[in-house]
User: Fold this.
Amino acid sequence: MLYWLTQKLATQYTAFHVFSYLSLRGILAVSSALLLTLWIGPAMIRALSRLQIGQQVRDDGPQTHLKKKGTPTMGGALILVAIGIATLLWADLGNRYVWTVLGVTLAFGLIGFYDDYLKLVVGNSKGLAARWKYLWQNVAGLATAAVLWMTAQTASETTLYLPFLKDFALPMGAAAFIVLTTLMIVGMSNAVNLTDGLDGLAIMPAVMVAGALGIFAWASGNAIFAQYLAIPAVPGAGEVLIFCGALVGAGLGFLWFNTYPAQVFMGDIGALALGAALGLVAVIVRQEVVVLLMGGIFVIETASVILQVASFKLRGKRLFRMAPIHHHFELKGWAEPKVIVRFWIISLLLVLAGLATLKVR
Assistant:
């Protein structure tokens, strides 16, 4: 909206041409989302407390979590509102990728909202049944993948690339592209959701991965930079930087309230939406493999759950004291802040490793 206004004003006043630069609008998106979150946050937390939408705590988990019972949750709505407003303010709304990523974020946010609603308002401790949750996630993922396939304008948009191998380019057919895209969106959505178990544990890695994906989007959307860095050029992908910037700002603003000890939790409404958005952005900028490296914390958390279930079913024994793995370290005696910060450090190193692939080709 503001971008459109500045473009109109630029025809009369040349100074407004500065808003054509993605870098500036990316910074403005970060700032806008951050300030919006800090401004709206206290009122939203009070509203959630007044409505008694509080966190439920498992009795079989770490005993230190019992004191978190009743802490307001569904705070992910705050993140989504800030992302949406900041993106609409500073992105080029004629760009198809902007609407695609906003649509996926909203769709998965609605799935998460209904799950949270059943658990926290209706009182159904199990929430949305897993089969229905995965069904609607896959419907949303498949629909998004189909849209990307049908609207692709260049071969690079549907080609699989691998890091470190600049000459590797595998064109994908419709089936392969749609399956891979759906797996990325749904897989990342659930991976972030599994990671969201400690105060600030999921949001900070999500912020870091979003920031790095924003850099990939900026470079991929510029044919000159893409050629220099030997990454796929994706026309129009640069505008996704605005969405990534909004996610970074909204995530940092949310962390202000979510840091230990948390005043609010994001709930499924936030975790499912953010994970799906990260998976989709990775597909748009053709960095599906790199995002698995940068989001390694999410991958490790998911793998720990899979391995725990498989080990118990096959051997009758657990590999970890509790899964996801962050609870394992808590039960080993690590203080919650120690687990969180150490996972953040690992995430930072993985994101830097992912960014390094820009030059190591």
About this structure: The radius of gyration is 20 Å. The chain has one domain: 22-356.
